[in-house]
Design brief:
Bound molecules: ligand C2E, calcium ion
Number of strands: 8
Helix content: 40-55%
Distance between the termini: 67 Å
Organism: Pleionea mediterranea
Protein name: PAS domain S-box-containing protein/diguanylate cyclase (GGDEF)-like protein
Order of helices and strands: HEEHHEHHEHEHEHHEHEH
Length: 278
């Protein structure tokens, strides 16, 4: 059994080496990603539950890796963050999403707004508000056209971020707290930070019919957020029962595969025209 343990250790070591290798490989590839134009945004619709009207779209980053292997944002975004590349990529995302919104409107698709995901590192290392203000001006758009989704984990031990968020709020940007219910933050963040909207995490939404605890959590979190005056959007809505449940609970908006999957801009327009009113 001693032999076995040693063998296990070697295996473990090899697994770590493999992981480190893959990471540095990804890092190398990611350094060239903007120059090589391998990034793409997919768009997922968001709707008002009651009316079924489209309220906006979330832009989600996709990497068309040359090897054609799919690399999930869950894997490559942490690498962008640890290398600082997220600053330039994040600016690209914001600009691309706003240009898309403008183009859709010119084509007659009257999308109310576009949402982007913003990482903690971007708020700390980049003067993102100034960049956004400049880009909006250039494209003849306003801060209300843009929603900024920020995850809860961002706020740990950081005093820069509340200031940046307040500044963005004062400029008129729409701020959404992403993955609500899963982060490390205390509920006091809700009243201390200038959010307009709470995004209920999909882990609660997915299990509302099957897990009593998820149903209770979803109900309570929606009620709490509404009482405090926030708008609430649920993510990860995958079927009509979840949709109906959320509507009954007074949730304002929904996003998820039941409404539409994240797709490239051309398919987004088809999806919308086929199923939704604007
Ligand atoms: P997120 O912001 O929580 O985005 C929602 C994720 O859930 C997306 O995964 C989306 O494709 C997926 N999703 C949407 N509807 C459903 C559904 O009905 N069921 C299920 N099971 N999943 C659904 P994706 O696109 O893989 O993105 C993963 C995460 O990567 C995002 O989570 C976000 O945190 C991050 N991310 C994506 N794009 C960007 C970006 O441009 N910048 C930054 N900083 N982060 C990004
Ligand atoms: Ca998000
Ligand atoms: Ca989320
Ligand atoms: Ca997430």
């Amino acid at each position: 059994s001693k032999h076995k343990a040693q063998h296990g250790f070697q295996f473990y070591n090899a697994a770590i080496t493999e992981k480190v290798h893959r990471r540095s490989q990804l890092e190398n590839d990611l350094r060239k990603v903007l120059a090589k134009k391998q990034l793409q945004l997919f768009y997922q619709p968001q709707v008002y539950l009651e009316s079924g009207q489209v309220s906006g779209a979330e832009a989600l980053l996709r990497w068309n890796h040359p090897s054609k292997e799919f690399v999930s944002p869950e894997e490559f975004i942490p690498v962008l963050e640890s290398t600082g590349l997220i600053v330039s990529v994040g600016r690209w995302v914001a600009r691309q999403a706003l240009m898309q919104l403008k183009q859709w409107r010119e084509q007659g698709l009257n999308l109310p707004r576009i949402a982007i995901n913003v990482s903690a590192i971007q708020l700390q290392k980049d003067d993102l508000s100034s960049f956004l203000i400049e880009t909006l001006k250039e494209l003849d758009l306003t801060p209300a056209d843009l929603e900024i989704e920020i995850t809860e984990s961002v706020f740990i031990d950081n005093d820069v971020i509340p200031k940046v968020l307040q500044e963005m709020h004062d400029f008129g940007f729409y701020l959404a707290l992403d993955d609500f219910g899963t982060g490390y933050s205390s509920l006091s963040y809700l009243t201390r930070l200038p959010f307009n909207k709470i995004k209920l995490d999909r882990t609660f939404v997915n299990d509302v019919q099957t897990k009593a605890s998820s149903e209770a959590m979803a109900k309570s979190l929606i009620a709490l957020a509404k009482t405090l005056g926030f708008e609430v959007i649920a993510e990860g809505v995958e079927d009509s029962q979840q949709y109906a449940f959320l509507n009954d609970q007074g949730c304002d908006e929904a996003q998820g595969y039941f409404i539409g999957r994240p797709v490239a801009s051309e398919q987004f327009i088809e999806q919308i025209e086929q199923f939704y009113k604007l």
